[in-house]
């Protein structure tokens, strides 16, 4: 499978615990994005990487959230001291480099977080 | 700032009917992309189409067609002869062309095709 891969697909945790999600993008893509989708809503942009550099962060990304892409390949999204309001689907997407970029994002199946 | 509005929260039709999903957008940028994505129950967003703001030509792909009208800031999506497999949530989205492709999504329209 050469698509965007996300793990785990589902995570149930208690309030106050830390959780980490992993995203493996399509190998030729140097751009990686994290989005959050709550029930009944469209996805909302969280952050964006070009290679290993985190170039943009949304105001939605509080200081309890941290994303990394250490070698410009896979990425992790960590949420510390989870709150019930963090319950959502966390979507990862990747895209081609600038110049080859058609504007299309390729999405993974998401990681669903439930905070009890 | 950009905004995408999908006024239809849910649509339910009988198989083989035609159905149109509405999308209205707002942006001050003169160059932008418009998208439609499909989200089946599995959760993965599936790309359907991208339209450049310079290109107002309508497009047809099989049973799918898209009507882009800059004058009304609309990018509507029509499914002809709908099938049960078309049941999903459909999202319209916009991104500016420069820089990161940050998509701004509408709220989505849940389409149910009944047999």
How would you describe this protein?
The complex is a heterodimer of chains A (116) and B (115). Chain A is mostly beta strands and 116 residues long. Chain A contains no helices and 11 strands. Chain A has strands spanning 5-7, 10-13, 19-24, 31-37, 44-50, 53-57, 65-68, 75-79, 88-95, 106-107, 111-115. In chain A, strands 2, 4, 5, 6, 9, 10 and 11 form a 7-stranded mixed beta sheet that branches. In chain A, strand 4 and strand 5 form a beta hairpin. The model of chain A has no long low-confidence stretch (mean pLDDT 92). Chain B has 115 residues and is mainly β. Chain B is built from no helices and 12 strands. In chain B, strand 5 (32-39) and strand 6 form a beta hairpin. Chain B is globular, with a radius of gyration of 14 Å.
SSE class of chain A: mainly beta
Portion in helices of chain B: under 10%
- Helicity range of the residues of chain A? under 10%
Regions with little confidence, pLDDT below 50 for 5+ residues of chain A: none
Using the CA coordinates, give the radius of gyration of chain B. 14 Å
Biggest sheet layout of chain B: 6 strands, mixed
How many distinct helices of chain B? 0
Count of DSSP strands of chain A: 11
Mean pLDDT of chain B: 92
Strand element count of chain B: 12
